[in-house]
User: Which sequence fits this backbone?
């Protein structure tokens, strides 16, 4: 009995639960919608409701910002060409402005008396993604 169950589970898991090694969102009963947006020299993967910390961005009078999408995954369709992405908007609301941790930069050259100390704190913005249309 144990041997046959072991073979059953091994076969099922090697094939995947739905007959393939990858899960498809429509087979699981929900749509997966996310976008990869360009913000502050980096790219971030976001969904609706995601809270992301970005480089400081100035918001409009309502406290909203618009981010440029690089990729959109909407269920089974993937959009990456510039013409289609120009029609898509990813909007976010600014939660707060904050500053990152202090970074200390020290340079030292032996036997010459050269010492240099410099500090830096990044200006950051915490945003919440409100819509991907």
Assistant:
């Amino acid at each position: 009995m144990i041997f046959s169950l072991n073979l059953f589970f091994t076969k099922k898991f090697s094939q995947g639960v739905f007959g393939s090694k990858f899960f498809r969102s429509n087979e699981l009963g929900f749509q997966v919608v996310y976008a990869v947006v360009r913000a502050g020299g980096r790219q971030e993967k976001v969904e609706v409701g995601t809270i992301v910390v970005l480089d400081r961005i100035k918001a409009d009078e309502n406290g909203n910002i618009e981010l440029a999408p690089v990729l959109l995954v909407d269920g089974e369709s993937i959009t990456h060409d510039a013409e289609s992405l120009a029609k898509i908007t990813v909007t976010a609301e600014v939660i707060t402005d904050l500053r990152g941790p202090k970074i200390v930069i020290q340079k030292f050259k032996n036997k010459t008396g050269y010492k240099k100390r410099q500090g830096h704190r990044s200006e950051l913005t915490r945003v919440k993604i409100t819509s991907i249309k």
User: Anything to note?
Assistant: The chain has a mean pLDDT of 85.
